[in-house]
Design a protein that fits this description.
The complex is a heterodimer. In chain A, β5 and β6 form a beta hairpin. Chain A is 0% helix and 48% strand. Chain A has strands at 4-7, 10-13, 19-25, 31-37, 44-51, 54-57, 64-66, 76-78, 87-94, 104-105, 109-113. Chain A is an all-beta fold. Chain B is mainly β. Chain B is 0% helix and 55% strand. In chain B, the strands form two sheets. In chain B, strands 2, 4, 5, 9, 10 and 11 form a six-stranded mixed beta sheet that branches. In chain B, strands 1-3-8-7-6 form a five-stranded antiparallel beta sheet, with no helix packed on it. In chain B, β7 (62-67) and β8 form a beta hairpin. Classes of the chains: A mainly beta, B mainly beta. Chain A binds chain B through residues 4, 6, 31, 33, 40-43, 45, 48, 50, 56, 58-59, 88, 90, 92, 97, 99-100, 102-108, 110, and chain B through 4, 31-32, 34, 36, 41-46, 49, 51, 89, 91, 93-106.
């Protein structure tokens, strides 16, 4: 079945550690996104990519990094510079960045700092 | 920048009732508006996408409308069922790149059996 796979579902990070969240899609979509969701807040855009080897910062990119070496994959690294990383992270994709495209989401990854 | 508001934050209704969820936005030059469903601890599932040139979209028991002049969209759920219990989010796209998409905080819906 076509879709977006995020892993791991749950991840614990120690202070000072970098961790990487995986996102893979088999929808043949060009555009991919990472959002962060905190309780009581709407989704906030971290990074997005329109095409392979290109990505742009969103509203809250500080403390995060991404890569887009393959069309299917858009991993997110939460670095030690992110001071409040505990949140629910959502990966998404769409055919393009054009506003007429439906955006599809993965099942999310929970990150907790211990 | 576009602001999207969903009121109420939570709603509880008996099974079988028809109900309306509200979404308001500040920029009437909206390109499209999308409604999503989110179950606890899960990702978002796209329900309906309304382009700016459309006034409504329907899928099964769901009907979404868009009124750009008043800055409002509604999601109508007919004959509600306990399985409809979830958080419903709307997101407005004001054009440009991915940063043109703004999400509301959602309405948490509970359908009482």
């Amino acid at each position: 079945d076509g879709g977006i796979t995020q892993s791991p579902k749950y991840l614990f990070r120690k202070e000072g550690q970098n961790v990487t969240l995986s996102c893979e899609q088999n929808l043949n979509h060009d555009a991919m996104y990472w959002y962060r969701q905190d309780p009581g807040q709407g989704l906030r855009l971290i990074y997005y990519s329109q095409i392979v080897n290109d990505f742009q910062k969103g509203d809250i990119a500080e403390g995060y990094s991404v890569s887009r070496e393959k069309k299917e994959s858009f991993p997110l690294t939460v670095t030690s510079a992110q001071k409040n990383p505990t949140a629910f992270y959502l990966c998404a994709s769409s055919r393009g960045l054009h506003s007429g495209n439906t955006i599809y989401f993965g099942e999310g990854s929970w990150l907790t700092v211990v | 920048k576009q602001e999207v508001t969903q009121i109420p934050a939570a709603l509880s209704v008996p099974e079988g009732e028809n109900l309306v969820l509200n979404c308001s936005f500040t920029d009437s030059a909206i390109y499209n508006l999308q409604w999503f469903r989110q179950d606890p601890g899960k990702g978002l599932t796209s329900l309906l996408l309304i382009q700016s040139s459309q006034r409504e979209q329907t899928s099964g028991r769901l009907n979404a409308s868009l009124d750009k002049s008043s800055g409002r969209s509604t999601l109508y759920i007919a004959a509600s069922q306990p399985g409809d219990s979830a958080t419903y989010l709307c997101a407005g796209h004001s054009g440009g790149g991915a940063d043109g998409l703004t999400f509301g905080k959602g309405t948490h819906l509970i359908i009482q059996p």
